[in-house]
Amino acid sequence: MPESWLSELRRRPIIAAVRDENALGAALASRSAVVFLLSGNLLNIEQMVQRVRREERAAFVHVDLIEGLTKDQHGLRWLAQRARPTGIISTRGSVLSAAGSLGLATVQRLFLLDSQSVRTGLESANNVRPDVIEVLPGILPGAIGDIWHRSGRPVIAGGMITSQKQVCTALEAGAHGVSTSNQQLWELDLDARCLSNPTEGRAP
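The structure corresponding to this sequence follows.
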């Protein structure tokens, strides 16, 4: 799964974003091939990642939100060697660069508040060169397509997505996948139109 998670995401583009251990069981029982772990601490994150790995899903840890984990080379090395996630999520360029050097896949979160945040986010992504960019909120189809084309990186839409229509809109705008904590959306069986590749649609 680690090497093929992006290919698997094309087939099953809904990412289960898990905010507590209770939701993890539902995520692992869902159709989602990729799980984002958005909470945890130094005592339970290894176990949570291993639960995801045992189910042959891709596990990504949002390291900015893990209590007790130092966001430096030592903390990331511990995470890579002990928990062994597929990759990490962060808003911090230095963290992403360090994680990439350890062989972890990297997802850079960009919060789009205005046109300036788009510019600075793209500048950061072009410097850091993460594997994937996650755009929040994910209900901005114009921004999704713009960032995909200007960065050349696969884009994930995240945040404020609550309906199948919004999922399809994000995918049709160019998103490679959609992350959501809405458990009902984890079970979506998306139709061919939603999964199609329009001329300026989803990343290859």
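The domain at 2-195 is CATH 3.20.20.70 (TIM Barrel).
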